TrEMBL record:
Organism listed in the record: Oceanobacillus halophilus
UniProt xrefs under InterPro entries: AKR, AKR2_Oxidoreductase, NAD(P)_OxRdtase_dom_sf, NADP_OxRdtase_dom
MF terms in GO: oxidoreductase activity
Classification via PANTHER family: D-THREO-ALDOSE 1-DEHYDROGENASE (PTHR43312), NADP-DEPENDENT OXIDOREDUCTASE DOMAIN-CONTAINING PROTEIN (PTHR43312:SF1)
Stated name of the protein: Aldo/keto reductase
Gene3D superfamilies noted in UniProt: NADP-dependent oxidoreductase domain (3.20.20.100)
Domain NADP-dependent oxidoreductase: 16-314
Lineage top rank: taxon: Bacteria
Length: 327
């Protein structure tokens, strides 16, 4: 396991960590026993950072993390997110009173007194431009209720605004082989500003595992079914904004990345791990096998310059024009 400093913080986190949306809910059936075994295995293999949110299973993911990390609170860093349990467009949702309520509930579920990283959960740009929520977060930081704060963003524009107009220590962005836009301007600027990058949706909701066909179906409570066209939230969170059949078609053209790297999952994660600006990539998981497979990316061979150039061309020529929604 390798560890990287998260921006200008004193947090050194595993460069391959895990998100907990899948074990909280909205990815089909969950099994808490398997989820806890997966968390234990991840920590056993050196993972010391987990990303969660108050809306992942209505707090269930946070409760699972509390169980898994009991007695290890000083060793295992946790990031959570807030705002999507309310109306994300209402300024009152970001008031000091409301944010304190969100945070207190998260800390209670996590059974912690302080949160390592508190992130605004994909707010509208207008809320970021208002700026008052950053004042609230600075106050909570000064009080010691949170150590650092960040923002999970949907678009490069939002990310750049946060970098220039806040004291955020981290940006969480959608980033994978199908979503390479952050490489152009956002990542270089984040490095200049000393802001850490957390790469989410690294496998494009499973497209980059290579396991799907156009006949693949998903359970009714899986966002890959109910949000496949952005019906519930930003379309980019599901299949990186690609229409499913097109995503399957494009994933077939990437099967070559698995050569000498075990499988597409490891290869897709390895590509992200090689990006200098990325502090940690945070794939999801539902069981021990998925944890071990994801962590296998740490040991596969690097990409050659020729392969990296091929992937850039692939994105520019075949992918970017098919991504839906602002990004």
């Amino acid at each position: 396991m390798n560890y990287k400093q998260l921006g200008n913080t004193d947090l050194n986190i595993s460069n391959l960590s895990f998100g907990t949306w899948a074990i909280g809910g909205a990815w089909g059936k969950v099994n808490d026993t398997e989820s806890l075994k997966g968390l234990d295995r991840a920590m056993e293999l050196g993972v010391n950072f987990f990303d969660t949110a108050d809306v992942y299973g209505d707090g269930h993911a946070e409760e699972l993390l509390a169980k898994a990390t009991k007695g290890k609170e000083s060793e295992i860093h946790i990031a959570s997110k807030f705002c999507r349990a309310g109306d994300i467009n209402d300024p009152k949702n970001y008031s000091e009173e409301q944010v304190r309520t969100y945070l207190d509930n998260t800390l209670r579920r996590l059974n912690r007194d302080t949160l390592d990283l508190y992130q605004i959960h994909c707010p509208p740009l207008e809320i970021l431009k208002d700026g008052s929520v950053f004042d609230v977060l600075e106050k909570l930081k000064a009080e010691g209720k949170i150590r650092y704060y960040g923002v999970s963003v949907e678009t490069v524009e939002e990310g750049l605004y946060v970098l220039e107009n806040s004291g955020a220590s981290a940006l969480q962005v959608i980033f994978n082989m199908f979503r390479q836009k952050p490489l152009e301007e956002l990542f270089p600027r984040a490095m200049e500003k000393g802001v850490g990058i957390l790469a989410r949706v690294p496998l494009a909701s499973g497209l980059l595992t290579g396991k799907f066909s156009k006949d693949t179906t998903f359970e009714e409570d899986d966002h890959r079914r109910f949000n496949k066209d952005g019906q519930a939230f930003n379309v980019g969170e599901t299949f990186a904004g690609l229409e499913f059949n097109k995503g399957v078609e494009l994933s077939r053209e990437l099967e070559w990345i698995a050569e000498g790297r075990g499988n597409m999952t490891k290869a897709a994660l390895k590509w992200i791990l090689e990006q200098e600006a990325v502090t940690s990539v945070i794939p999801g998981f539902r069981n021990v096998k998925q944890v071990e497979d994801n962590l296998g990316a740490l040991d596969v061979k690097d990409y050659t310059e020729e392969e990296l150039s091929r992937l850039v061309r692939f994105y520019e020529e075949k992918v970017k024009d098919h991504i839906r929604g602002a990004y």
